[in-house]
C-alpha cells in the first residue's frame, strides 16, 4: 500500500531547505531534541524502542534495542557513530538526507547521544560525497551558533559535539567494525566479534553505530510519539515500523527516492513509483535493496503453506506483491537491505549483470580473509570466462561451490554479500549461463541496455 | 607543528586545519586519514615525503601510514592529472548507459581508464558505485557530481576540462 509521507523529505524541494531557518520553520526542527534532553535517558531509550525503527543500513536490527545495549563504563566515554558510507550498488537514499536535510542528522545525533550516554558523535561520510560533507559541516556550524550543540545544548548541562569524519574510498568501511577501524585511523579491515561495539567500539570505548537514515528519522518519530510513528507502517505487527526512504533505479521510467510508509510492495515501487519499465518491456527481475540482496525473478511465487508463517497471507501470490519489510523479504529468500530496488528489464543479460557485480565485489574485498579475497576474484574470472564462451559446464557448476565456500567462512558479512547475489543469479538464471557455455550465445549478444 | 626532515610542509592554512583536526579525536591516530586528505589536497598525491611527514607528526610507524595509504582507493600513490574524472561503472549506472559514457570518454581523451592525458590535464578512472543510482549514468569530476548524463553533456564537461 502506497502511503506517501514527508517527515524527512518535506524540506527537500524547498529553497535553502538544508538551512536551520527552514528546518525550524517547516518541521519544528530541534523541538524533539529539546524535549528529549529534559527527559531521563531511560525514557528516551524506551521511546526509541516504541518507534520500531529497523536499522536502515541493511541489517534491519531494531534501533531502540541497539541503544539499550549501551551500559555506562566506569572510566571510558561512550560514542555514537553514524554510518553514512553509502556505497552499496543500487543505494542512493542517504545522500539525499545529507544534501537536503542535514539538520535532521544533527538533531538525531543529539537525541541519540543522550539516549546512549555519549557526548561525541562522529558522522562517517564517504569521502566522495563532497556536497554532503559541506552541508553537514554547515548544519553543525549553524546548530552550534544557536547553542543547540556544544557545552550546554538548549541550556541543559549535557555537552554534545558532532564531527564529520571521512574515509578514502573503500566500500568495506560501510561494515560497522571496519568503519570503526577507519575512524581510528587504520586500514578499514573488519574486526572479529565479539567484542561487539556496544562493549568495545570506537577507540576501545562503548559505541553505538547507527545508519544515517535511522538516526535522521528519530526527531520526527520522537515528536509524533514512538508508537504513533510505528503504526504508520503496514508491518507494525512485525515490529517493522514507521516510514522510510524508498529508492528505485535501473530500467524504470522514473528512477527516484521517495518517502513512504513501510509496507509498499515491489510491484507498486516499480510500476506506480518508478513509472513502469523502460520501453514498456516486461520485468526480468529486481534486486530489492542493494546489490548484496539476492535478485527476485518476475515470475516467482511465495511458498508459505504453513499458516504460522508470517508470509502465509501471500502464499501462492507473486513475490512482487509482498510488502517490503525486513522479515517479509527474508521470508522470500532475499533481504530488504537498504530498500533501494534495482530493476532489470526483459532482454537484459543476467550473466553480464552478475559479471558487473562480481567485478565490484572483487575490487572491494578488503583482502583480510582468503575465502572472500580469492573466492570473489575466482567468481569474477569464471563468469568472465563463461561470457567469453571459454568455460565448461564443470566450471559453471564450480561457481556454486566457490560461492558456498565463501559463506560463513569470513570475519564479516562481505563474504555473504558476494556469495548470496552470485548464488541468486546462478539459481534463477541457470539457462542463461548454460547458453554461453553451449555456445548458443556470445558476449556480443549480451547487453545491459534497453534499446528503445 | 614540527617540520619533518623529509622537507614536506603544509601551507599555513592547512597547518591550522591540521591542528583543528587533532582536537576532534581522542587519539593522534584518529587524525591519520583526514590529515592524509589534507596533504593530498595540497600535493595531488601521497608522496613518500608525505608518508614520512604524517608518520612523524602523528607518532605512527611508517608502515602504518603506508598501510593506510595503500588500502584506500582515493589516496593517489603516484602523481595524477590536474582533473580527476571518475565514471561510475557499477550495475545501476551500467543499466543506464555507463558503458557508453566510458567508451566515449576514452575516445575523446585518447586514453584508457586509469591513464592520464599526455598534457597532464585529465586522469580518467572508473568508480565503484557513487550512490547516485537514481540519476544514472553519472560521473564525478574533481569534487562535483554530474548526473543523468547524455553524450552531449559529457562532451560539454570534457570540453571545459581540456580547454
From TrEMBL, chain A:
Residue stretches making up the NADH-ubiquinone oxidoreductase 51kDa subunit iron-sulphur binding domain: 351-396
PROSITE patterns, A to Z: COMPLEX1_51K_1, COMPLEX1_51K_2
Keywords from the UniProt entry: 4Fe-4S, Flavoprotein, FMN, Iron, Iron-sulfur, Metal-binding
Pfam family, one: NADH_4Fe-4S
Cofactor: [4Fe-4S] cluster; FMN
Superkingdom, taxonomy of origin: Bacteria
Family membership noted in the UniProt record: Belongs to the complex I 51 kDa subunit family.
Protein name per UniProt: NADH-quinone oxidoreductase subunit NuoF
Native organism: Pendulispora brunnea
TrEMBL record, chain B:
Stored InterPro entries: NuoE-like, NuoE_dom, NuoE_N, Thioredoxin-like_sf
Highest taxon above the source species: Bacteria
Reported cofactor(s): [2Fe-2S] cluster
Keywords in alphabetical order: 2Fe-2S, Iron, Iron-sulfur, Metal-binding
PROSITE patterns on file: COMPLEX1_24K
NCBIfam families found in the cross-reference section: nuoE_fam
Entry's family note: Belongs to the complex I 24 kDa subunit family.
Protein name stated in the entry: NADH-quinone oxidoreductase subunit NuoE
Annotated source species: Pendulispora brunnea
Amino acid at each position: 500500500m502506497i502511503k506517501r509521507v514527508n517527515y524527512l523529505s518535506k524540506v527537500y524541494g524547498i529553497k535553502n531547505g538544508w538551512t536551520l531557518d527552514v528546518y525550524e520553520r517547516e518541521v519544528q526542527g530541534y523541538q524533539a531534541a529539546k524535549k528529549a534532553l529534559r527527559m531521563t535517558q531511560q525514557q528516551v531509550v524506551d521511546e526509541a524502542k516504541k518507534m520500531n525503527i529497523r536499522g536502515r543500513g541493511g541489517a534491519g536490527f531494531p534501533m531502540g534495542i541497539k541503544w539499550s545495549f549501551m551500559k555506562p563504563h566506569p572510566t571510558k566515554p561512550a560514542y555514537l557513530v553514524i554510518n553514512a558510507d553509502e556505497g552499496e550498488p543500487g543505494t542512493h537514499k542517504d545522500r539525499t538526507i545529507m544534501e537536503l536535510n542535514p539538520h535532521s542528522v544533527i538533531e538525531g545525533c543529539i537525541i541519540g547521544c543522550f539516549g546512549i550516554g555519549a557526548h561525541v558523535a562522529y558522522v562517517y561520510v564517504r569521502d566522495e560525497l563532497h556536497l554532503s560533507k559541506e552541508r553537514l559541516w554547515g548544519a553543525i556550524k549553524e546548530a552550534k551558533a544557536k547553542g543547540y550543540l556544544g557545552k550546554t545544548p538548549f541550556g541543559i548541562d549535557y555537552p554534545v559535539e558532532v564531527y564529520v569524519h571521512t574515509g578514502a574510498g573503500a566500500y568495506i568501511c560501510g561494515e560497522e567494525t571496519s568503519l570503526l577501524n577507519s575512524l581510528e585511523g587504520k586500514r578499514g579491515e573488519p574486526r572479529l566479534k565479539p567484542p561487539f561495539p556496544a562493549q568495545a567500539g570506537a577507540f576501545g570505548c562503548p559505541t553505538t553505530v547507527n545508519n544515517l537514515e535511522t538516526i535522521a528519522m528519530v526527531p520526527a518519530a520522537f515528536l509524533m510519539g514512538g508508537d504513533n510513528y510505528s503504526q504508520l507502517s503496514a508491518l507494525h505487527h512485525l515490529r517493522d515500523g514507521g516510514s522510510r526512504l524508498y529508492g528505485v533505479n535501473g530500467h524504470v521510467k522514473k528512477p527516484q527516492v521517495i518517502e513512504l510508509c513501510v509496507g509498499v510492495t515491489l510491484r507498486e515501487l516499480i510500476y506506480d513509483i518508478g513509472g513502469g519499465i523502460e520501453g514498456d518491456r516486461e520485468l526480468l527481475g529486481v534486486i530489492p535493496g542493494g546489490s548484496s540482496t539476492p535478485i527476485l525473478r518476475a515470475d516467482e511465487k511465495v511458498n508459505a503453506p504453513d499458516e504460522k508463517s508470517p508470509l502465509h497471507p501471500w502464499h501462492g501470490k507473486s513475490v512482487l506483491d509482498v510488502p517490503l519489510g525486513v522479515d517479509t523479504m527474508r521470508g522470500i529468500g532475499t533481504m530488504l537491505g537498504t530498500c533501494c530496488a534495482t530493476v532489470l528489464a526483459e532482454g537484459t543479460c543476467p550473466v553480464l549483470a552478475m559479471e558487473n557485480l562480481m567485478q565490484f565485489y572483487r575490487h572491494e574485498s578488503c583482502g583480510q580473509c582468503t575465502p572472500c579475497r580469492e573466492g570473489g576474484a575466482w567468481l569474477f574470472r569464471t563468469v568472465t570466462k563463461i561470457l567469453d564462451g571459454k568455460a565448461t559446464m564443470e566450471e559453471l557448476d564450480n561457481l556454486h561451490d566457490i560461492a558456498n565456500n565463501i559463506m560463513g567462512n569470513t570475519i564479516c558479512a562481505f563474504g555473504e554479500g558476494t556469495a548470496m547475489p552470485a548464488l541468486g543469479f546462478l539459481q534463477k538464471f541457470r539457462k542463461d549461463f548454460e547458453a554461453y557455455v553451449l555456445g548458443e550465445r556470445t558476449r556480443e549478444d549480451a547487453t545491459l541496455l534497453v534499446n528503445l | 607543528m614540527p617540520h619533518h626532515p623529509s622537507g614536506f610542509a603544509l601551507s599555513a592554512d592547512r597547518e591550522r586545519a591540521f591542528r583543528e583536526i587533532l582536537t576532534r579525536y581522542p587519539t593522534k591516530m584518529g587524525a591519520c586519514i583526514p590529515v592524509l586528505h589534507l596533504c593530498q589536497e595540497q600535493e595531488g598525491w601521497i608522496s613518500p615525503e608525505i608518508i614520512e611527514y604524517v608518520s612523524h607528526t602523528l607518532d605512527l610507524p611508517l608502515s602504518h601510514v603506508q598501510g593506510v595509504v595503500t588500502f584506500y582507493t582515493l589516496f593517489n600513490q603516484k602523481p595524477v592529472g590536474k582533473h580527476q574524472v571518475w565514471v561510475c561503472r557499477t550495475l545501476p549506472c551500467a543499466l543506464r548507459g555507463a558503458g557508453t559514457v566510458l567508451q566515449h570518454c576514452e575516445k575523446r581523451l585518447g586514453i584508457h581508464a586509469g591513464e592520464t592525458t599526455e598534457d597532464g590535464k585529465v586522469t580518467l578512472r572508473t568508480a565503484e558505485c557513487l550512490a547516485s543510482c537514481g540519476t544514472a549514468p553519472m560521473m564525478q569530476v574533481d569534487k562535483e557530481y554530474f548526473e543523468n548524463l547524455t553524450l552531449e553533456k559529457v562532451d560539454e564537461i570534457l570540453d571545459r576540462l581540456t580547454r
